[in-house]
Design brief:
By secondary structure, the chain is mainly beta. Strand 12 and strand 13 (139-145) form a beta hairpin. It has one domain (2-189): Jelly Rolls (Sandwich), CATH 2.60.120. Helices cover 5% and strands 44% of the residues.
């Protein structure tokens, strides 16, 4: 009986009290997180996240998730994503919203890091990129450093630094084309002036 009570108490402890796979490092505005249950917790910053946990930002809110020593995921308002997979095969599953993702180093052999939206899947090695999936489920990506590969409907398109593409829901990706998004756009993701060091990963081609 006592053992069962202790087990029930342990299972009811929120992720903030457990060792995490990632950290909800900084937040501004109304941000919640939770696991597979319907229970959600209001984030204050510093809470650990486990694989299977989700993060949701409200209107005007920003959240910054640290992936241990690998990089960070910064999410803007009205965004919802699930941290899925494992340390070797990580999947960020975005149902909606806007995000900025940076990996500080290339993945080791056999590892994968993917971002999934309703319209496409992006495979990442080590890079800095922005993405958004809107109310129509259309996904847009823009590269700020190195390369990502975006796949939908059997077509894969590489997006280099300085390039962008769009994936309408249910259709293959467009061809990549040049973008003129300034690095200052990243400031919309800052919390107390911090971008978790992602600005150092920018490597846009020099304009002639």
């Amino acid at each position: 009986m006592i053992k069962n009570l202790l087990l029930a108490a342990l299972l009811s402890v929120p992720a903030a009290a457990q060792e995490g796979d990632a950290t909800l490092a900084m937040v501004a505005g109304h941000v919640t997180f939770g696991g597979g249950s319907a229970t959600r917790y209001k984030a204050k910053g510093g809470e650990p996240l486990l694989y299977g946990d989700s993060v949701r930002t409200g209107p005007g809110a920003v959240a910054q998730v640290l992936l241990k020593d690998r990089g960070a995921v910064l999410i803007h308002e009205n965004t919802f994503f699930v941290l899925s997979g494992s340390p070797r095969r990580t999947l960020l599953d975005f149902a909606r919203g806007e995000f900025l993702i940076g990996l500080k180093k290339k993945l080791d052999k056999g590892m994968s890091f993917k971002v999934r939206t309703p319209a496409a899947v992006a495979a990442v090695r080590g890079t800095l990129f922005w993405g958004k999936t809107d109310k129509d489920k259309t996904t847009t990506y823009a590269g700020f450093g190195h390369r990502i590969e975006v796949t939908a409907k059997g077509k894969t398109v590489a997006v280099e630094a300085g390039q962008t593409l769009t994936v309408p829901f249910g259709q293959p990706p467009s061809d990549a084309s040049s973008h003129d998004i300034p690095l200052s756009y990243m400031e919309r993701f800052h919390v107390n002036g911090s971008l978790q060091g992602l600005e150092a990963l920018a490597d846009l081609p020099k304009k002639e």
